Amino acid sequence: DAGVIQSPRHEVTEMGQEVTLRCKPISGHDYLFWYRQTMMRGLELLIYFNNNVPIDDSGMPEDRFSAKMPNASFSTLKIQPSEPRDSAVYFCASSFIGGPQHFGDGTRLSIL
Amino acid sequence: DQQVKQNSPSLSVQEGRISILNCDYTNSMFDYFLWYKKYPAEGPTFLISISSIKDKNEDGRFTVFLNKSAKHLSLHIVPSQPGDSAVYFCAAKKSEYGNKLVFGAGTILRVKS
Predict the structure, then answer these.
(1) Which of B10, B35, B57, B92 is most open to solvent, judged by the fewest CB atoms within 10 Å of its CB?
(2) Closest approach of A19 to chain B, Cα-based (Å)
(3) Which helix (H) or strand (E) holds A71?
(4) pLDDT of residue B66
(5) CB A7 within 8 Å of CB A107
(6) In this structure, are residues A100 and B34 in contact, taking their beta carbons and an 8 Å threshold?
(7) Minimal Cα–Cα distance from B107 to chain A, Å?
(8) Do A43 and B44 touch (CB under 8 A)?
(9) CB distance B45–A56 less than 8 Å?
């Protein structure tokens, strides 16, 4: 039974480059969440979708960040242009309504 | 504005003894609470939850207690095992707002053998 799958697991790139993080939620889940974890701010919600529709993007830090969910089995989080302060671990999670969120193993992003 | 607080950054416990992890919240609208466990280089894993209509929920070695008047919950692990060493996150939500969770900063638990 596959869990939430994130790719890549690690990404190292230079500032100014575009970064795309990918997520495949658990089949049948109708909620998808993007989180960022840093030492300073802990685990913070960036955006979440319900049935592929963005519901709350109040956690997205800047216009440089964007997220899409073109279908029920795929979502992307894009940063353009990237900056060193974007370095963090980014997690994707999915759930049924009322159920616990299930997390992927994250993407560790380093912007040089 | 931290709505969910885990004031102990770390906790060290001897194998076989009880581990007690604490969490406080400020938003009285929260009606559902969860605990997650996280190992290094992995995502958080759901452990146990409790609704605000209950004051206790038990699952094997794990028990969560909720004190609504004090806006406080705790996770008890009995007996503690070395494999329980991980970061534990407390999370809360308001069910009317769907499945959006607010997480605490986490507590590192070390179980010594």
Answers:
(1) B10
(2) 20
(3) strand A65-71
(4) 98
(5) yes
(6) yes
(7) 11
(8) yes
(9) no
Task: Name the amino acid, one letter, at B74.
Answer: S
Kindly list the residues from chain B whose CB atom is less than 8 angstroms away from the CB atom of residue A44: 103
Please, what is the average pLDDT of chain A?
A: 95
- Looking at chain B, which runs of residues are DSSP E strands? 4-5, 10-14, 19-25, 32-38, 45-51, 56-59, 62-67, 72-77, 86-93, 102-103, 107-112
* Closest CA–CA distance from residue A96 to any residue of chain B (Å): 8
Each residue of B95-105: b (16+ CB within 10 Å) or e?
eeebbbbbbbb
pLDDT digits (tens, 9 = 90+) for B50-83: 999 999 999 999 999 999 999 999 999 999 999 9
Q: Which residues pair with A71 in a beta bridge?
A: A74
Residues B11-35: tens digit of each pLDDT = 999 999 999 999 999 999 999 999 9
CB contact under 8 A, A101 and B105: no
**A100 and B49: CB-CB below 8 Å?**
yes
Q: Which amino acid type is present at position B27?
A: N
Which of A36, A43, A46 is the best mutation test for B, with the most CBs of B within 10 A?
A: A43
The one-letter amino acid at A26: I
Name the phi and psi angles at B27, rounded to 5: -90, 110
> Rounded to the nearest 5°, which phi and psi values hold at A64?
-70, -20
